[in-house]
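As a warm-up, study this chain.
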Amino acid sequence: MNGHRFGMWHIACLLGVVLLSGMSCAAWAEPLPKGKPIAILISETSGNILNPGAAVGTAEAIVKQELVAAGYPVVNEDQLAKIRRSKAAALALDGNVDAILSLGKQYGVRIFLSGKASMHTPVLNDFGFYTGTAAIAVQAYSATNGKYLFADTVTGKDMGATPDEASQKALMAAARLMAKNVMAGEGAAGAGPGAPQEPVSSTAQKLFVTIANARNFNVANQVLSACQQLPRCKDAKITGFGGGNATIEVLYMSSAKDLGDALSRKGIPATVVGISGNTVQLQAQ
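Now compare it with the structure written out below.
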């Protein structure tokens, strides 16, 4: 019985190596620049109904450790504690430019990186162990001019003998992957040398984003703002709105597919439902 258990554990460990690599929604934007103090705030929520508090604090700690080890100047815990208590912090976490600029001026931060980590309830697998899944989404802005610098979403999976261990290890895998992407560029850690990449075009082409079921102008405006924040966007404007439909014209230095992929990671109130020619089709939520 013990030998059988050891054999199953050995197979599970081999699968865990595959899971540990995680997945990244790649966009191949530039890495964050070195030499500028970075404030890192990553909140965590757990979908693990067996232990809602599992692994809290892990993602932020690992991303900081990885960046410090690579020579990035990261704001220390005392300074972060003050930032968290400030009224501007909550707004900054949602990407409020004025709040980010305020934090930069008050605390000497040059880059504000915020994000959210979530863990799902681990699933018991055929080997008698638990498979955990964790996702981390971050955005980074310049705290000197409010410019959007970086955004990425990664997913990590791993296995453990208990639900807590599976959640912890999955979150650690996702955090390490995110740290690599922050330092090497969006999607770099999740893309192997042979992975297909959408090249950055030397000239921008005119693309269109259509939004169906846009109940109010605010939906269109949020999608417009998301387009304008994308690194490959040179210009974007709303060219049509009415009858529950909106159209946004985008000058973009890549393909419609790349634009659709980038928008799907921006947390907009719409879902990409199709890409046809030079048009990305969205359905408002």
